[in-house]
């Protein structure tokens, strides 16, 4: 929950993100989340990218 709030504040607080497309914001968010979650998914490394994309969808749907 705190991670989602942090990423929303990070993305929402940066002025230049308003100029970026949704696809670029989605790619940045997915990269941040997959980097953050990678230590926790040692056994599911292939699924961590999908989990990051799912969380990115959840975060970016309000932006």
Automatic annotation (TrEMBL):
Organism expressing this protein natively: Candidatus Beckwithbacteria bacterium CG22_combo_CG10-13_8_21_14_all_01_47_9
Protein name: Uncharacterized protein
Transmembrane regions listed in the UniProt entry: 20-41
Assigned keywords, A-Z: Membrane, Transmembrane, Transmembrane helix
Keyword match Transmembrane: yes
